[in-house]
Amino acid sequence: MLLNHLKLSFRNLWKNRTLSFLNLLGLSIGIGSVLTLMFSVYAYYVADSMIPEQEHIYYLKTHLNDGNDYNEVVYPLLDKIKNTSPEVKAGTHLHGWGDVWLEAGDKEFQNTTTYADPEFFKVFGLPLKYGNHNTAFKEKYSIVLTDKVSKQFFGEENPVGKSLKAADTLNLTITAVLEPISPYSSFRLGVLLPNTLLKDNPIFKQQTNWNNSFSPIFLKLNPETDIALFEKKVDKLVQENYADPSVISRMEVMPHSEVRMDSIPVVEIIIAGNIATSFFVLLLVLVNLLNLNTSTMFRRTKDIAVRKILGGNSKGVITQFCLENGILVLFSILISSVLFFGFLLPKMNDVFGADFGEINFSLKNDYPVILGAIVLGILVTLVVGILPTLRFVSLPVSQGIKGKIDSAKGSFILRNSFIILQFSIAILFICIAIILNSQIGFMKKADLGFERDHVIVGNIDLDYKNMDAANSSFKGLLNDLEANPYVTYVSTSQSVPSDYYFNYTTFYDPNTEADVRFRRSYTDDGYLKTLQIPLIEGRDFDSDIDNGEETPVIINRSAMEAFGWTTIEGKRLKYKNSDFIGNPIVGVMKDFHYQDLQNAVEPLVHYYRDEENLAKHRYLTVRVVDGKEKEIKNIIAAAFAKIDSRKNYAQGDLSDKVSGQYRLIDGMLKTVNVVALLTIFISCLGMFGLISFMAKRRIKEIGIRKVLGAGVLKIVVLLSKDYIILVGIGALIAFPIAWYMMSAWLGSFAYSISIQWWMFALAGSIAFFITAFTLGIQAIKSAMANPVKSLRTE
Amino acid sequence: MLLQLKNIFKWVQQGGQRVFLLKDINLEVEEGEFISIMGPSGSGKSTLLNVIGMLDTFDEGEYGFLSESVHTLKEKYRSNLYKEYIGFVFQSYHLLDDLTVEENLEMPLLYKKIKSSERKALVADMLDRFNIVGKKDLFPTQLSGGQQQLVGVARALIGKPKLILADEPTGNLNSQQSEEIMELFKKLNEEDGVTIIQVTHSEKNAEYGSRIINLLDGRKI
Questions:
Q1: Domain containing A582: what range?
Q2: Banded model confidence at residue A218, pLDDT cuts 50, 70, 90
Q3: What DSSP assignment string belongs to B153-196?
Q4: Locate the ABC transporter domain: which residues (chain B) (predicted)?
Q5: Is the pLDDT of residue A708 over 80?
Q6: For residue B52, which of B90, B2, B94 has the smallest C-alpha distance?
Q7: Is the residue at A690 inside a domain?
Q8: Which of A20, A218, A623, A763 could form a cystine bridge with A488, CB 3.0-4.6 A?
């Protein structure tokens, strides 16, 4: 019997092969996308599960009076908390201090370097591949490697006990190797060093005061700890000990599970988006199959009745139908896995890998995803196999045999609401895609306050082996460039737009009593000219007069406004509670967008720094005559090829660097575009199947109408009209939702487009035309049919 | 006695009024009879046939089939009863379009859970008897109307029913084809002793039967 069912299933699928193929296509792409999205969600949720007792780990968040917040705290706070709070079982700093170059034999690599307290493993009991938690940070000159770094240096060997030379001078003993860490984890580790190593570093000593917040701290608390009470305690410590506690509104004790959201805020949106998208796509696929299957069932009412007369029962009919759908689902799962591994996963890593790290599928760890897909497949099969049959199996045989079923209003409404739902979702995604496109286009083309074209940006932070030799070669290059007729301006600086450091310094004006948080950078006297940033007041830096004892600064307009000044005449940039008389402010520049347009232009200060000081600058920027970019690039690259350094010189165009800021949003856009296409495709698929079935059911009606003189156009309109109305209703539902969602999203941008009516009109039109096209094909076919033939079929 | 209908009424409610489809039908059928039901369109012929075939219910009266009283039986037993003893032949054949001739014949046996080897034998037998061995791998749509009806009759017979119900079996056939089918019925009735009840419009076809029942507006006349 089963064999018979199987044979019949294949025959049925083959008989309706166009429909089966479309179904298979929609299902495969749908399941493939859901698999990809859900896999990334799954990877995200399990990424931190390797941290034991994560629920007892907390970190501190500092809220400022001006509404800003950050996770860094001053260095001595941790010891203070530990000494006064018995509920703290262990605590550690976790911060960078420059990434060190490590050497073993002839191999030399630089990796993300994180400094931690000896208690690190008491807080984070990360599983170790080699070594043990107790001895890992016992000695000052020890180093813990991640699995990746260990493989980089030593392959599959156990490196514990071996030594690495750091920065050409320090011998570090490897004490432990961590198990591989998921790229979606909150840890971005390369190597871990004990911060006891830094204790003698003079700059480090200088920074570890009650003034400078540069390291987050992580605490493991007793499970019984009352967090609210502990928070008050920390708050009190902060108010008592901080050099300037007045800017701080409160301290918050945050559970460690929040830390990932904190570090990359869009993660939340992306994960929520992934879940919502998977849900919608799945719903769409399901609804589609239900719809098509219900239609097929109508055609089979007679079959079912005949089978019943011949002795069959409803169980057989359901089995048969489930089997047909099961075959479809099974094949589409197979096809979607091919899609997933061969195309979607690599594509996703392309899009998001740079920001989140690449994820790979391993059967050992990720088998729940496969199980999930199978369970999902079975559920889908059961739902789409059983639901549509229910109404038909209970139909009296004497009615079924006539091939007629009472066209109850119920199913009609149900099917129509399915179509509306589908098109609402599809149109929603089209709206999102259009608005996202406009916003990204706006951000990429917006006036940034500087000229981004024809500017070469070279990274000159290359870890030179011989600083003096490098400096003199660099000086030679600068002279060559300045003499070159195709070079208009040359500049060196610590930062370029799109890459300003996130270090904030608070300055104070005793007259207006304003505290203003500044971003800061160092530039030479050619920076504003090279980028063509206009000055509003004062003068640009000038190497002839600015190389004196005082370092002059230029601030931006926002900074001036934040201080409440109308002029900078005689103003200096001062710290609060400090004897330092401050840096003279020599100029005010226009607010240019030194970061992406998601963020507002914050107060910014440029300190003057000598152009030729290679060690203290990170970027070389060169404005060249249009068309000569390549030539100049070659000259610079040739010069750097002669300088001995650990890193290779790399350069590019400023315009690319600026657009590169939107890589992540671009990635989201690509995803949304694909999803929008997918949803409209799947919806149309369903529509196509439905109308072809409807046309078949109305074949007699069409015949009669034609005999009575209706033209082809009239029939086409007759068949399509209802569906177009449904699409319209779908659009009306989708528009306000899209408007609400996208307004909220655009609100997170400091500079955003306003949503225009034409965006909705465009989305509606796209949906309308695709639908009309789909409907048209089928409707015209039915309308052209010869009435003599169609009337005879009864 | 094969079956007995006593005071059968069937009606539908239409606009608050009872419209009678069958009115006070009394009928006794002996095994081996060949009965033709005649009457104008809408007189209740097909309804009567469906009631006899247990495909349709009735609102009042008693129906005895062999020793069972059908009106007291549950749906499940009723369907077991007709599966066992009744074969149906339809005006528009009602073959399953997705199945070949051979598979169409096999279908009722599958539902009776007969073993594969036995099924094959019975089907081969039937193909042979109706001279359609050459057509066994064709689909119904590839056959002429007469051939389709031949398969329809073969399918009705394969379960060895005591009774065949035929609803205008020649309605879609030309005169030569219908003559063949009627000859077949006659042969089945005479040689195999199968009881046949047919609904027909044609006087000529009615002549094949041993008894004619005339209906008008749901009433036997």
A1: 461-648
A2: very high
A3: HHHHHHT--SEEEEESTTTTS-HHHHHHHHHHHHHIIIII--EE
A4: 3-221
A5: no
A6: B2
A7: no
A8: A623
Judge whether A598 lies within some domain: yes
Tokens of B201: 């419009």
Q: Is B159 on the interface with A (CB under 8 A)?
A: yes
Where does a domain end: A608, A633, A648? A648
- Over the stretch A179-198, which tens digit does the pLDDT of each residue have? 888 777 888 788 999 988 88
What would the DSSP string read from start to end of B88-114? EE-TT----TTS-HHHHHHHHHHHTT-
**For domain B3-220, which architecture applies?**
3-Layer(aba) Sandwich (3.40)
Q: Which tokens in the block code for residue B90?
A: 């339809």
End-to-end CA distance of chain A: 33
Q: Per-residue pLDDT tens for A468-484?
A: 888 888 888 999 998 99
Per the listing, tokens 């639901």 go with: A387
B44 touches chain A (CB under 8 A): no
Evaluate if residue A794 carries a pLDDT over 60: no
Q: Using alpha carbons only, what angle is made at residue A165 by residues A164 and A168, rounded to the nearest 5 degrees?
A: 165
The amino acid that residue A707 corresponds to is: V
Are the Cβ atoms of B98 and A12 closer than 8 angstroms? yes
Structure tokens at A545: 């007069």
Residue A215 counted as domain residue: yes
pLDDT above 70 for A354: no
Pinpoint the alpha helices (H) of A577-662. 629-641, 654-660
Which residues in chain A have their CB less than 8 angstroms from residue B159's CB? 311
Backbone angles phi, psi at A465, to 5 degrees: -80, -35
Number of separate domains in chain A = 2
Residue A599 within any structural domain of the chain: yes
